[in-house]
Specification:
Layout (H helix, E strand, L loop, with lengths): L24 H24 L9 H6 L6 H22 L11 H11 L2 H14 L4 E8 L2 E8 L10 E7 L6 H4 L3 H8 L5 H15 L1
Helix pairs in contact: 1-3, 4-5
The structure holds manganese (II) ion.
Manganese (II) ion binds next to α1.
Length: 210
């Protein structure tokens, strides 16, 4: 697998229909094969013209945004963010019922949000609060779990927050099945969250930070 230019559209970690009936197969096809592919194509086209950035990983392209030439900053940020956010989103879902939340993560969630239901409720409110296109996130921020949102294809990495889980609330993520009812999409998405992946990400960032 390549981690820098030229980026390729790696397959989903599960079949397109795997998240039915919560996330529909047609949406997954369009989302992965068309929307994500477009960000990959646009990012590769930008990097083709800027060889000095071709050795950068996605994260480096996002975190080092301040060092990029002004003219490139927005377009690289949008497209590298589009690739990063979508891969993160797809990897954060699963149809495997065994990937339930583990004790350590549950303890951390209870510590910061009182209990799991409160966490879900706050996350849902955050997802509903995104005006237009963007994402809701669970992040590690200064050692604390926090819920936040980003607009368009911005990422928490730029704010030095470490992402654990994200929910794509662009309309293309849910319009075919849930129409304009974002709340129903959020409720359905909670059925397919890959909590095991969230734990792995938390472990990774905790070891990185200490
Ligand atoms: Mn999307």
């Amino acid at each position: 697998m390549n981690f820098c230019y030229p980026f390729i559209n790696t397959p989903l970690p599960y079949p397109y229909h795997a998240l039915e009936p919560f996330i529909d197969e047609k949406t997954m096809h369009l989302h992965h094969d068309k929307h994500l592919q477009t960000y990959i194509d646009n990012l590769n086209a930008l990097l083709k013209e800027n060889p000095m950035l071709q050795k950068c990983s996605l994260e480096e392209l996002l975190i080092s945004c301040c060092r990029r030439p002004d003219s490139l900053q927005i377009s690289i940020g949008n497209n590298a963010g589009g690739v990063y956010n979508h891969r993160f989103f797809f990897d954060g879902m699963s149809n495997d019922d065994n990937l339930s939340i583990d004790d350590f993560l549950l303890l951390e969630i209870n510590k910061h949000f009182c209990n799991f239901d409160q966490f879900k409720n706050q996350f849902k409110q955050a997802a509903l609060s995104v005006f237009g296109s963007g994402y809701a996130w669970l992040v590690l921020d200064n050692g604390r779990l926090k819920i936040t949102t980003t607009s368009n294809q911005d990422t928490p990495l730029e704010k030095h927050q470490y992402p654990l889980l994200n929910l794509d609330v662009w309309e293309h993520a849910y319009y075919l099945k849930h129409y304009n009812v974002r709340a129903a999409y959020v409720d359905d998405w909670f059925h397919v969250v890959n909590w095991h992946m969230v734990s792995l990400r938390l472990e990774k960032w905790l070891s990185f930070c200490t």
